[in-house]
Amino acid sequence: MLKNKSILKVLILFIVIFMPWFNSYDSTQQDTIPSLNKESVSFYQSNSCNISLISFLSNNSNYQEYEYRFESSVEIPCTGKVQYIEPVDDGFIVFIGFHSLVSIALQTTIWLIFISFIGAGEIKKISPINILILSILMLLHLMSESTYYSRYSSNFSIDLNFDNYFLFSYFLTFLFVSYFIDEICTSRTTKLIYYLPFIVLFQGTFLGMNLNFFVLILMFFGLKYFTKNLRIFNSISLVLIFLILNTDKKEYLYFDIDKLRGFSSSSSNFLSILFWSLSLVLIINGIYYIVSETTQVNYNLLIKNFILSGFLVVVFGILSSSNILLNRLFFLFFGQNKVSSENIFSVAGNSWRGFSPSAEMIGEFYGLIFLITFLKIINNKIVLKNYEYIFLIFIFYGFFRANNVASLIALISICIYFLIKNYIRNIEFRILLYIFVVSAFLVFGYFILRQNTYSNMGQAIINEGLLLSNVDSNLLSQRDYLSILDKANNGSNISTSLEFITKKLSSQSNIPFIPNPFAVLSVLSLFINRAEKWGVFFAKYDPNFQELYFGYGGLNLVNYNFDNSIILSGLVLPHSSFLSLLVFFGLIGIAFFVFTNIFLLYKNKNNYLMFYAIVYLLINLIKSDSLLYPPLFIIYFSFLFLLNKKTSQSYE
Amino acid sequence: METLQKIDNKIFLEENLENITKICGEKTGPFNLSEIGNDPNFVFTNDPNYDVVVLFYSDGTKINVNSWIECANYVSGGWSSEIISNTNYEQFYFFFLSTVALSVLAYKNIYKKYVKK
Fold it and tell me: With a cut of 0.85, is the ipTM above it?
């Protein structure tokens, strides 16, 4: 019976993956379809949504030479067909129609089938109220980001009338998705934590939507247990959301969220801020619930799954970069928010992101795998199989190609610290070794930055920020910050945050021989190559008093990007997850986050595996935007709750 | 005369700005639509950071635009992001899903309660 069920699931999976591309396929019509060239392009353009992708491919053996893009703004029957072909200088762009309603159905089916292979535990009662609430929340999301959806969905309308089948269809689709999430995932909550690493492989972003499947699952669990767990966190969060919603903010219709799709607001208005802020609270509740449902955590299994996932991420990254069509199909089936690297060679900053939207994030993930595996091996609690060592070689390749030096240094530092702490019994010798390692790092840092003075390095961030702020270039070259601030109102665009740190840095009341905190921050930023990026951040971050304390709202980078007149091309991220938290929830939010982390780390310092993993992630979060991506966000908070779990592992 | 034309253009653009922003997104640079005017030889440069937008005209023709200014120019010329279609496929989809939902409910409530017993 079980075997038959598995065969049926594989069969459905097979059908769902291959069926769309045969939409309206007619083998007798193949001869009438010309191969694509400059002459025949008009044939394809005038036969929009008439030719299935399979027909196109079978008539174009050189399909690898074209660029492919999914187009969600089509009618439902156009799904899986060639919607349009655009000639460009070096070839053609083939637009493949894929309606977002169909993509929700298809992607959800695939991912839920994979989850259903996890052995089910105790069957729990369906909760219709939560299914309904989640579907209503999704409708709220559609309404709050209407500009985004009107670009990606044909016939988009948020008019509440009986003829608006678009809205009805989405509502019903989300009812179905929520129902199946409850039906399939709820009975497997005790085991879901072990499959956490695969969230880096199956990223879960719906095609043409600003929504993520795993976010939906966690929101669903969060709704179920919102009133039962984390009462202090929930109360503080709700008060903070109330305060955020009550501050006057500029509204924006559309912001291009690019690689943050599925986990960031694309517009700034009351509904979008409410939705995303509430989502974050529910997601954290959902993660807490999954961790608390797992009675005895088997860390060996978790680490083995991390190794397997890391290996698969590298392999799929290589496969994606070898074939353009596979690249795009993986984009759909794995729910990537950005297509994988299209070739195996490194591009910007000598880094290769492979399957991930960010080289920085994937570097941290690979480093995390090495760290937890190392800690477990050292403590003799895990025996790896031969093939797992081969997997680790692949992961090392991915880590090396991601070129995340900060992760590597953090990894090495923590491993050295762990070794010294556990294997050097003589305290004096241990202290001597610590001093030697710290001195080595300082000397190394000195040789990197020795060409500069402390004063210059201490002003690096504000200098970078002021460069963008349209200030008097003569005064800036003389580093006359006080005069720059005096003239600040004459057409310059100095943000409130940049003005504040410039004042603090050039203040006459600085205490002699005590380093200015902003100067220290600036020097540190040079060490980790963040002076320019954080300069841009402070140039753009222009909050008023209330926004500084309460933030712009959960996952809202719109106001941060648009509330100033500094225009930069592309998506400008803060390049620090702490700064992102400052943007989202202000000083109160970041204080709460830092306090909670310190408290949990101090309280659970004996849970060595999660303790060092959290420390490693926190070090990386200082300079990376990883918390802006669902995989690292979910892994981070899962680890934080695992750290606090009473049955977790401690030193032997 | 030229000044009057400029004022006309400005009023027209302001009226359309909301529609342009809705379809093409927020303006991301110092673009000036009036410079393009009706110049048939004007060449739009592709913006690699701009997501391609598909626009439709009332006669059913469509075009893909590759920059904000190109998109804004077409939208001011009456192009739209919505397909003019006679068939409401979402309606079919809705009824299809409703039928499936009702069938599942019927199976769960009637079959399991009565037939199985």
Answer: no
